[in-house]
Amino acid sequence: MVLLLILVAILAPVLTSLFGHPTDELHTDQLDPNLGTPKGALGGISGNFLLGVDPVFGHDIFSRIVYGAQISLIVAFGAAMLAVIIGVLLGMAAGFLGGWVDTAISRTMDVLLAFPQLLFSIALVSVMPDKVFGFSGSSPRIFVLIFVIGFFGWPYIGRIVRGQTLSMREREFVEAARSLGAGRIYILLKELLPNLIAPILVYTTLMIPTNILNEAALSFLGVGVRPPTPSWGQMLSDAVTYFTIDPMYMVIPGLAIFITVLSFNLFGDGLRDALDPKGN
Amino acid sequence: MIIRNRALAAVAVVGAVALTASACGGSKGTGSSSDAAGKSSFNAAVTSIVNPSTKKGGTLQFWANQDVDSLDPTRSYYAFAWDLQRLYARTLLTYPSQPGTAGLQLTPDLASAMPTISNGGKTYTFKLRSGLKFSDGAALTSKDVKYGIERDFAQDVLPGGPVYLQQILDEGQKYPGPYKDTDPNKMGLKSVQTPDPQTIVFNLAAPNSDFEYYLAMGASTPVEQAKDTGANYQKAPLATGPYMIQSYTPNQAIKFVRNPNWDQSTDPVRKALPDAINVTITTNADDLDSRLLAGTADLDIGQVGVQTAAQAKILTNPQLKANTDDAPNGFIRYIAMDTKVAPFNNVHCRKAVEYAANPTDLQTARGGPTAGAIATNMLPPNILGHDNYDPYGLAAGKAQVDKAKQELALCGQPNGFSTTIAARNNKPKEVKTAEALQASLKAVGINLTIDQYDGAQSSSVIGAPSVVHKKGYGLMVFGWGADYPTASGFLSMLVDGRQILADGNNNLSEINDPQINSLIDKAAAETDPKAAAADYTQINHMVMDQALYLPVVYDQALNYRNPRLTNVVFLQALGMIDFASLGTSDGK
User: Fold this and answer.
1) How many interchain CB pairs under 8 A, A with B?
2) Per residue in B303-357, pLDDT tens?
3) Is B425 on the interface with A (CB under 8 A)?
4) Which end of chain A has fewer CB atoms surrounding its CB within 10 Å, N or C?
């Protein structure tokens, strides 16, 4: 399922050209001119429009869902990578070095965990200039989303890594390496890191669905990618207005989020079972 | 950033000179039907008086999903608050309770007749009716009228209302308002004289054909000096109209009862049919709509249209639809092209946008034909000077790719260009408008980036030319409504080159054309409103020929009226149902 989702996201342009219409193509002929909502039943689902069309413009929802998967997964993976890199580095440093380094890093993690992430994101996006490093349009928004979600996500993984490192640094194999004269860097990379791979992998997989939800929430609040780039959260927030007369428009992106989050959660659970013999 | 269809009813949206405009009777697209005058049918109140009656009694149940900005007429700028003022605050002149353009012609209210204009259009002399009283029983004299106007000057104590009278009557004397007036009787405003209790004389520095319209705003209503409590006056203002405020609980309810000191013989405008009027304020707009359709609420006094769900019910049910009006409310929606942002400094690039835009898609983005008719120029149909000028064939509702490409070639950008379009992030319809334009301009190679900025800051974002240049906003989505139904009140702020402000600018195109400027001056000096209107017709044509603005729609709002309401009139001057003429057929 997870592989299928990733394939869908990667193949979005192909799928769209085979089964859909360009995401920003208007199909106002599919709409009731007075209400602006789809003429056909179930939000205008038909052979031509597999998941129907959206109100006002008649965009093809199928294409927008498929392209929305791209945005969701890019942001979710990107943010997870960022969180893992920061979390593992700082978590290991805190656990291994101890002392004031540990105190400083742990307190930083506490502060970040208590930080109002949503409010910060909204503020950040509204002060962000239109062009960042020569990028304009939706791409800087994607970077901001990755940064915000990843930056506030690392303390979770950082704490786990720190705990694991703490418990392992006094273990015999580490002592053995140390007594053989191994340097700190060697111990960190060659002795500790391999033993941390399993929890990191599991936690990363479980972080992705949370990130997808975060991205949807931010897009829902209007600080996600810019229209007309499609995103699931944006579609949901759009759908609120038409909920009573065109419920399908809300159901479809809702289902997309639901299925994606559920499959990544199941995948993560399965991975944990496979990698952690004690859990069985 | 919460999505909502129902924007604030407010005028305040547009900035200092905001809205409350007018409305237009039979513009095309409204499908007005005026069979047997008086019968309830779709848009009947726009062209006729629905359910005419003189039956007194009953209580009107008004609902609103937003409180008034202030009950003190001096401090109010919400369109529906101005309409409510017709119940309790009389002015020298007012709009008659008449459908169609008859409702745009001012009529004497406190004044016994239209003013005598002398001294080359600079002196206005009004005689008051006799027997006028405040709701506390005190006689109403010309000094009270003058005092009420003096209060407009005290912007430090009483901010928020229109300042036209302050601007035109100050004439360099820097009058600080009555609270800081050094005159012991607080009658220090020299440009207004009260030779006797029935006479008031205004001396202007220069003729101004809009002056009478300023006097029809609630901000000129008389106030009894002994009862003025300054900033607290809004809690319980005295009444001069047929109703007075019995109680006011902010954000909950306003209750009006009959004013025992109002005399029908002094008031030719108001019928005063109901015994009481309750305004209930809710925050749940969908609940309000359900109450309207169930008949337990008489009118949504916000008058900005029902929500999507109720609209779907109404449009699919002819019986419900017969109880609605969907008429232009005097607002125009447009996309401004900034002549100071390349490549829009070239008229051909601007024309390319006019041709490449798909007017039907833009209309759809605003909510379809129910929400507004396609606009072809910058003067709404209810304003004197409007015509059907349509140099770019917008009325046909189709993008004209070939013509757009020709213009692009003339502009030296045959393959198109990229620019940014700014839209307020708290106005979903404006964001959709930008998306629709983005989609149609793509066909000719013009690529738009949509920038959604904080809508609450619009006066310091798109209203600040330096910010606009820095952000490179070539296009800006915005809307405009006039405070009173003349072309000068409507169009001059948008195209007068001397009105380009560093902050709170409304001339978004930054056009400073000597020909347009001199025509604006010529129109202001006209004594005949028809001549002024002709000047503005010409200005409007020049604005369109230079492609400074891409007009989108003349706004309409689908509003429901309870079938039990009598004497329902759509007042063009305010762009909504007249609250002061209504009665109930069942006496409840």
Assistant:
1) 82
2) 989 988 898 889 889 999 999 999 888 889 999 999 999 899 999 999 999 999 9
3) yes
4) C
pLDDT of residue A135: 59
Q: If phi over 0 gives left and psi between -120 and 50 gives alpha, with beta otherwise, what is residue A133?
A: left
pLDDT band of A6, cuts 50, 70, 90: confident
**Which stretch of DSSP H or E encloses residue B449?**
strand B447-453
Q: What is the pLDDT of residue B456?
A: 80
Does A24 sit within 8 Å of B364, measured CB to CB? no
Chain B residues touching A34 at Cβ < 8 A: 315, 368-370
Which tens digit of pLDDT belongs to each residue from B380-413?
Answer: 887 878 899 999 999 999 999 999 999 999 999 9
Tokens 């006799």, residue located:
B130
Interface of A with B (CB under 8 A): 24-26, 28, 31, 33-37, 56-57, 122, 126, 130, 136-137, 221-223, 226-228, 237-238, 240-242, 244-245
Q: What is the mean pLDDT of residues B159-185?
A: 92
- Which among B388, B385, B365, B364 has a CA at the least distance from the CA of B377? B388
A187: its two tokens:
């111990």
Q: What is the pLDDT of residue A132?
A: 59
Residues of B in contact with A126 (CB under 8 A): 453-454
Q: By CA distance, what is A35's nearest residue in B?
A: B312
Peptide bond into A140 cis (omega under 30): no
Which residues from A are below 8 Å from B311, CB to CB? Answer: 35
Residue B3 to residue A237, Cβ atoms within 8 A = yes
Instruction: State the Cα–Cα distance between residues B153 and B179, nearest whole angstrom.
Output: 10
Q: Which of the residue ranges A70-74, B413-417, B522-526 would you say has the lowest mean pLDDT? A: B522-526
**CB within 8 Å: A28 and B309:** no
In this predicted structure, the answer to whether residue B57 has a pLDDT above a threshold of 60 is: yes
Find out whether B222 and B110 touch, Cβ atoms under 8 Å.
yes
Residue A200 Cα, gap to closest chain B Cα (Å): 37
Q: Do A57 and B420 touch (CB under 8 A)?
A: no
Instruction: Using CA coordinates, name the residue in chain B closest to A22.
Output: B439
Q: Which of A151, A85, A142, A80 is nearest to A115 (CA)?
A: A151
Select from B4, B364, B454 the Cβ nearest to the Cβ of A57. Answer: B364
State whether residue B177 sits within 8 Å of chain A by CB.
Answer: no
Chain A within 8 Å of B471 (Cβ-Cβ)?
A: yes
Contacts of B563 (CB under 8 A, 6+ apart): B40, B295, B323
Q: What is the mean pLDDT of residues B124-138?
A: 95
End-to-end Cα spacing for chain B: 41
> How far, in Å, CA of B65 to CA of B4, rounded?
12
Q: How many residues does chain A have?
A: 280
Task: Quote the CA–CA distance of B295 and B293 in Å, as a whole number.
Answer: 5
pLDDT number for residue B26 = 33
- Cα gap B446→B401, rounded to integer Å: 11
Residues of A in contact with B370 (CB under 8 A): 34
Answer with the residue of higher pLDDT: B195 or A14: B195
* Closest Cα in chain B to A224: B452
Record the pTM.
0.79
- By the 8 A CB rule, do B133 and B140 touch? yes
Which residue of A31, A53, A56, A128 to mutate against B (max B Cβ within 10 Å)? Answer: A56
Q: Which residues, 6 or more positions from B542, have their beta carbon under 8 angstroms from its beta carbon? A: B513, B515, B516, B519
Give DSSP secondary structure letters for A109-172: HHHHHHS-HHHHHHHHHHHS-S-BTTB-THHHHHHHHHHHHHHHHHHHHHHHHHHHHHHHHTSH
* B324 close to A (CB below 8 A): no
Residue B102, pLDDT above cutoff 60: yes
